[in-house]
Structure formats: C-alpha cells, structure tokens
Specification:
The chain is of the alpha/beta class. The chain has one domain: Nucleotidyltransferase, domain 5. A hairpin with a 5-residue loop joins strand 2 and strand 3. It starts with a helix and ends with a strand.
C-alpha cells in the first residue's frame, strides 16, 4: 500500500453546500412576492382592483402614488389621510422637488371621490397627475 492511499483514507471529507434546495427556496420566495405585489398598487400598500383601459401608457416613475379605496378613503404609503392632510403633504413635497402624482383608485370608487382627491392634488399646485389603469387584454 502506498503512502498516498493511506493519507487519503484518514483525510476527512470536505463539507458540500447543496445549491439546488437553496435555489428552490429562492424561487418560491420570488413567486410569492410577485403574486403579492401584483395585487397591490405600488406606493399605496393597499390591495385594489384597478380599472382597465385599451389606451394605457407606461409611466417611467412617479414621485407619489395616491390611492382611493372602495370605501372612499384616501391613502398614501398605506396610511389613510384627509383631503387637507393630502394637500399639505403634497405641498411640502413640491417645495423639495417637482412632483408627479399617480392616482390609483379601485374600479368601484365613485367618480365624486376621484374628483375630490384630484381637487386636493391640484390645490397643492400639482398639474402632473396620471390615473392608474391596467392594460385591457386584446
């Protein structure tokens, strides 16, 4: 028996890192977060069913997303706000930098609620307002 064989017999096996189970877990987490995020409008943190339109356009980015829930509540960053609080917050943001607002409302929100929020946004001196809609399937 050579010295080389004897040395390898007493040598401890090196531990292995199993990568495949780790990839499975990462894929599960990715799918989980994608499914959750599809149900929420970015920036509002509130699950909504937004209306669809055939003429939607992609928006690069928005500074603020204002949400209107089915009950007519106005929401920013997942927190309900009044019309005056909305106006104040947007005015403060506008002083820091130009503000683009995306208005995301549930498809069952009354038009009057939408107009009240738009009045508050325009009252803060912001004229760049987009309305969130999903692309209608053709």
């Amino acid at each position: 028996m050579s010295a080389r064989t004897r040395a390898s017999y007493f040598e401890a096996n090196r531990p292995r890192v199993e990568v495949i189970p780790m990839i499975d877990i990462m894929m599960f987490l990715l799918v989980f977060f994608v499914v959750i995020s599809l149900r929420m409008i970015a920036g509002t943190g509130v699950p909504m069913e937004i209306p669809s339109s055939k003429t939607t356009q992609s928006i690069k980015s928005s500074t603020v997303t204002v949400g209107i829930t089915k009950t007519g509540e106005t929401v920013i960053d997942g927190k309900p706000v009044t019309q005056e609080e909305l106006k104040t917050k947007l005015t403060e943001l506008k002083k820091q930098k130009p503000v683009d607002v995306v208005l995301a409302g549930d498809k069952d929100v009354p038009l009057q609620s939408l107009l009240q929020v738009m009045d508050a946004i325009r009252g803060a001196g912001i004229s760049s307002v987009g309305i969130a809609a999903k692309a209608e399937k053709k």
